[in-house]
Amino acid sequence: MNAFELKNVCKGFGEGKDRVEILKNIDLEVKDGEFLAILGFSGTGKSTLMRLLAGLEFPDKGEVLYKEQKIVGPGPERGLVFQSYSLMPWLTVAGNVGLAVQAVKPKASKAEQAELTQKYIDIVGLSHAATRRPSELSGGMRQRVSVARALAMNPDVLLLDEPLSALDALTRANLQEEIEAIWQEDKKTVVLITNDVDEALLLADRVIALNPDGTLGDAYNVKIPRPRDRGAMNSDKTFIKLRGKITKYLMDVGLDTKTEETHLLPDVTPIHGLPKAYAEAARVNQEKGYLQFSQLDKVYPTPKGPLKVVDNFDLKVNKGEFISVIGHSGCGKSTVLTMAAGLNEISAGSIILDQKHVLGADPERAVVFQSPSLFPWLTAKENVSIGVDRVYPQASQQERQDVVEHYLERVGLADSMDKPAADLSNGMRQRVGIARAFALSPKLLLLDEPFGMLDSLTRWELQEVLMEVWSRTKVTAICVTHDIDEAVLLADRVVMMTNGPHATIGKVIDVDLPRPRTRQALLDHPDYYKYRAELLDFLEEYEHGAKGKSQSKKTVEAAE
Asked: What is the mean pLDDT of residues 430-458?
């Protein structure tokens, strides 16, 4: 029997000229007990599809059936977990989960309700936090409460609408394992909306792509034995083949970033004396030790005394080299980056760029943050011009505008450069941030999780944009990321940091892959999964604390 059946479903919003068709002619069957992942990206109608299954929206055309009955509204048999957790802030973890238990078991005794509440809290690993309120929890813990609350409704179906997308990589991985374990135990029907190919393959029996035009795309059966281990799958031939096939499909239907360049880069020199607007930068030989981190420490005062966050970070970077820095949340990656930007005081040691000590912020060190921090009332062009006007004081107004427009075109904003930042999507705003950084013609480009808030397709697009522009400039660059694919794709070397406090460099690997790089070419390269495995192994070791799994084990043995 099918849990769900969608017959020629269409759904749109708006009237007249403002009408937008979101879903078109959707025919879909979801088997009872199946784990289905629907893989799509921002704006493709994934959440609209999920709301149709939940009974929160209704089709304009066609039918949505649950157990052969037309869905006429929400029901307790369909438990929904959103990306945002919407917890009652005045209630504890137990109070939030208890609300669901009381709704399902109103006639049960207080003791029985408390026992059931504790059962679901235990399932998501929050027994130690049962008396805490949402404000005292991390984002990952709050999402666990949402999952526990949905489970407490004891639904026949779990509808998961990108429940993990806002979480850091480690929390996301842990919750993926918990969701799979819950599904294995009860064999509930699960429909998961995600934009992460790895997440879909780790969890699902079947993966279906949702095309950008609102139609259903190709379907893929995932015939990988369970339980599925993240590390082991990296060397699984079925996983590698399927991952490549799905990624290629999504790129083919969604990626179109090529733009025609109409503004040539003018022959002007910035204030800090780099080759004229990068015109010669690509031809300059790499210089050893152009950027040096020497025995770098960062200490913060706390009520319990000084806390050393970064300990003896020591690294030499060649001119024109692209470095990725990777590690778990809280390992000090961004702290190192903000010290290099001159935005965070150095506690001990030094940072030397082009034979000068880094002291305070300077436009010769451009930073792209996770959020681009644009002036919303200014256009894309005006946001980029602010820095360019300062960096190129001797250039004419037309030459400065040519610099601005050159880089906005390079990042795919030729048709949107006169739009206010407030009218741009998140991905477009981040493009402006990247254009602004390159337009400053910096000696050092610093990227702090620049694509962390974006969906996968937009992230892939902007990674391609970043690589294309960087290949022309060869600016020395450091990118902080938690995404191992991004780290390998972008970098000449990957620096892996141990967990904090006292975080330091745990390992450095050279990425000997040909440039220019594309995601598809890397997926087909025989060494790509070897580098990926090396990073996965390192991160898995440090999931267990600052000293890593093997060292922690030795410490325990010594104590015994």
From this structure: 85
